[in-house]
Amino acid sequence: MNKKIVAILAILLVLAAVIWLVFWRVEAREVVPKVTQAELIESNKSWVETKTPLPLTENIFMNLPAKDSKVTVTSSGNLVLETTNPYYLKQLADENDRFTNIKEYRLVIFADKVSEYINNSKYRYPTGYGHTGMSDYQIESGIREISSGQEALPLKKEGQTVDLKSSLTTRYANDLAKDTADAFEFDALDQGAAIDDQFETSFQDVTAYPKEFYYDFTVTKKAFFLWSETGEATITEPVGIEYVMK
């Protein structure tokens, strides 16, 4: 009987410790203050005003101001680049066959992703551990790159007016990727974006592709203090749209 009581007490103590730990972790999470739309717009305008180099791809950066190029921030806060600069168009074509014979390039970065997009090369994975439920997660290694979606988005073109209405979602390769994003509170948990974009161009051949962050990392998950697994997790997060005009 004494052994049974001791065993029951031991189980209760373990359960109490687990419950306390879970609640402590929930309470310990910092609440990040939300930025107002006006503050977001002003912040995005500052990147243009300070002439910060703008990534066109992972490896190509445009130095601002640039000839035959215009960078603006819309009333919704999106950053928009339009360029016919031969120097940068050639760099794009040399890097990717998609841009062969390109005459104009247009890049739209969603308002809430501008800062992350411009600073992507400085991105570092979270150190330490992330937590969700009763599982611990640690990112061992990985990358986050700027990439272009492979599938073109449906758009309408009437005369010189291009109209794109679509929606993009964040894609998780597996449950490990989604749980890790939750544990480390990645912004990728914002499930995507609705797009309503319209502009004018004199070029007839217009194609639109998603502009994305591609995460690829190795994660170790420890659950219930009893077992662990290490696996690869990938996330593809929409951050904007790029238009190729020929």
Describe what this molecule looks like in 3D:
By secondary structure, the protein is an alpha+beta fold. The strands form 3 sheets. Strands 3, 4, 5, 6, 7, 10, 12 and 13 form an 8-stranded antiparallel β-sheet that branches. It is 26% helix and 39% strand. The chain starts with a helix and ends with a strand. 25% of the residues are buried. The protein is elongated, with a radius of gyration of 23 Å. It contains 5 helices and 13 strands. About 7% of the residues have low confidence. A hairpin with a 3-residue loop joins strand 12 and strand 13.
Class from helix and strand fractions: alpha+beta
SSE pattern, N- to C-terminal: HHEEEEHEHEEEEEHEEE
Envelope shape: elongated
| Global mean pLDDT | 86
Q: What separation lies between the terminal Cα atoms?
A: 84 Å
Oligomer: single chain
The low-confidence runs, each spanning 5 or more residues with pLDDT under 50, are 16-32
What's the total number of strands? 13
Could you tell me the radius of gyration in angstroms?
Answer: 23 Å
Question: How would a crystallographer describe the biggest sheet?
Answer: 8 strands, antiparallel
How many helices in DSSP terms? Answer: 5
Proportion of residues in β-strands: 35-45%
Q: Helix proportion of residues, in percent?
A: 25-40%
Highlighted features:
13 strands; 5 helices; 39% strand; 246 residues; eight-stranded antiparallel beta sheet; 26% helix; elongated; alpha+beta; three-stranded antiparallel beta sheet
Helix and strand topology:
Blueprint: H1 2-28, H2 37-49, E1 54-55, E2 61-62, E3 69-73, E4 79-83, H3 86-95, E5 104-109, H4 114-118, E6 130-132, E7 135-148, E8 156-158, E9 161-169, E10 171-172, H5 175-183, E11 192-200, E12 206-223, E13 227-245
Antiparallel strand pairs: 1-2, 3-4, 4-5, 5-13, 6-7, 7-12, 8-9, 9-11, 10-13, 12-13
